Automatic annotation (TrEMBL):
GH3 C-terminal domain ranges (all copies): 394-498
One Pfam family in the UniProt entry: GH3_M
GO MF assignments: acid-amino acid ligase activity
Record protein name field: GH3 auxin-responsive promoter
UniProt GO cellular component terms: cytoplasm
Domain of life: Bacteria
């Protein structure tokens, strides 16, 4: 880490970072797709969809290469690509969607469906994730940071590195897969260390970290906000101190991702003696897609030249049904055809054998020139029972506004849509340990959404007849996740509950 600190102070950059900084987004993506197709041309997938023929179109002008790719290769979601291709990888078969066998599978948090998904992780993808991680690390040269910070410990709070092995492949949280294969130069600074990281019991792992915390000099923390907040609260209570800076005086940076941080920020900052630098990452089970690249900008820069090719579909009623499923005959856009401020569902093709794969996220570009974006939600995590088009981004903003208006801290929340008097209703479940009248809170949230979303206010006057709030102790949210086998690691509480998960949550609260 001292070496990295020296590099940062000297302003050294990776070649790939410079290529993206001075390159055309469309040209970088064209070359990335070419690399992926060349690598996979002899796989079963590549032969079926005639990758060699698609590669010949790269000699032509314009976007002929993309039109050929889009014409030959169908769009996949997880269920479709797993049923047709990825289940063969779990049987140990080689050269299916990517060269050689796949030895690792990341278990996704499964917030959209009823169970975890097995996402293939190739050696090429592990290398790509590492490279993007270093690229983000080197952006710290843009911050005014003391040199001593780069010699401090880095606490990465993730899933167990003791992966499940069935004789053919290993499976576990992506954080557990990557943390178990850290570069040698990084291991000296990595906390909580390999022994604690292997523990599969999340409660025990947190207790072990608490016991060791006072012996560590932590400068950077990495993880999902909810679980890091719980850990820090435990540390503060155990050592009977005022803030985490009494234990870790050099704590300066919080690297987070997977969920919008704003709803957690108010409560999290009560645990600090001074503000932290917040750095957001877009690290999905399918790849490291984007990261916050400068202190001046809260959006994230899409990584264009490191193992991922992107396509985009406007997230509107024209292209998606009321369940968030893609309609027939949709033609996605390459990065050359986008507009700022428009919400897009994203498809990715990757060096782990995902092809035109709908990742499930909805993004919005804040700057096409810099390829900077924000995540606004999930294709399945939105409510549009009657045309209200309520996104997770809308929900997060409404909750944050309510926190400030009522001077309370909301740790978690979720929403379900219900039939009501032949029309519709929204039922909110809000996790807070502060005393608050549920009707007052419900009115605030409702009023805030009317300010944020024009479609919402229209439907509140017509088909959306009721919005109610149930205040729930915050611990209930984490207890339910534990009951679902989703405690700790990369797991996040879904902002919208539908189907089996909705039924499970309601039954859990009724116990």
């Amino acid at each position: 880490m001292a070496i990295i600190g020296t590099l940062l102070k000297k302003g050294i950059h990776l070649r790939e970072s410079l290529e993206q900084e001075y390159g055309s987004a469309s040209e970088l993506q064209k070359q990335e797709l070419k690399k992926l197709l060349i690598a996979a041309r002899k796989t079963h997938f590549g032969e079926k969809y005639q990758f060699r023929g698609i590669l010949e179109s790269f000699r032509q002008e314009g976007d002929a290469y993309y039109q050929a790719y889009a014409k030959k290769v169908p769009i996949y979601d997880y269920e479709k690509i797993y049923a047709e291709w990825w289940h063969l990888l779990q049987q140990g078969e080689k050269n299916i969607t990517w060269p050689k066998a796949i030895k690792f599978f990341a278990l996704s948090s499964g917030t959209s469906g009823a169970s975890s998904k097995y996402i293939p992780i190739s050696k090429d993808m592990v290398q790509a994730m590492r490279k993007t991680g270093v690229r983000q690390l080197l952006t710290l040269s843009k911050y005014d940071l003391p040199s001593k910070l780069f010699n401090k410990g880095i606490l990465m709070l993730g899933g167990s590195t003791d992966l499940e092995f069935n004789g053919t492949y290993f499976a576990g949280d992506l954080s557990g897969i990557t943390a178990g294969r850290l570069p040698i130069w990084f291991q000296r600074f990595y906390k909580p260390g390999q022994k604690i990281a292997k523990n599969k019991n999340w409660g025990e792992k947190l207790d072990q970290i608490v016991e060791k915390a006072a012996k560590w000099d932590i400068g950077i923390i990495v993880g999902v906000p909810a679980w890091l907040q719980i850990l820090i609260e435990k540390i503060i209570a155990h050592y009977q101190v005022e803030t985490i800076h009494d234990i870790w005086p050099n704590l300066t940076i919080f690297v987070h991702g997977g969920v919008c941080f704003e709803p957690y920020k108010r409560g999290f900052e009560k645990l600090l003696a001074r503000p932290l630098i917040y750095m957001e990452t877009y690290l999905a089970s399918e790849g490291f897609l984007a990261f916050q690249a400068s202190p001046e900008c809260s959006s994230m820069k899409l990584v264009l030249n490191n193992g991922v090719f992107y396509e985009f579909i406007p997230f509107t009623d024209q292209f998606f049904d009321e369940n968030g499923d893609l309609k027939e005959g949709v033609q996605p856009l390459s990065i050359a055809g986008l507009r700022e401020g428009v919400e897009y569902a994203m498809l990715i093709s990757t060096c782990a054998g995902a092809w035109r794969y709908m990742i499930g996220d909805v993004v919005k570009f804040t700057s096409l020139e810099e390829c900077e974006l924000i995540i606004t939600g999930r294709t399945k995590h939105f409510l549009s029972l009657c045309g209200e088009h309520l996104s997770v981004d809308n929900m997060n903003k409404a909750i944050q506004m309510a926190e400030n208006q009522l001077n309370i801290h909301i740790r978690e929340f979720t929403v379900i849509g219900l039939p009501y008097q032949n029309l519709f209703a929204h039922q909110w479940y809000v996790g807070t340990d502060d005393a608050i009248d549920h009707e007052v809170l419900g009115q605030r949230i409702d009023d805030n959404l009317k300010q944020i979303n024009d479609d919402y206010i229209t439907e509140r006057n017509h088909a959306l007849k009721k919005v109610s709030v149930q205040v729930v102790p915050s611990r209930k949210f984490y207890d339910w996740m534990k009951s679902e086998g989703k405690e700790g690691g990369q797991h996040k509480f879904p902002r919208v509950l539908k189907g089996a998960k909705m039924d499970s949550w309601i039954a859990f609260l009724d116990q």
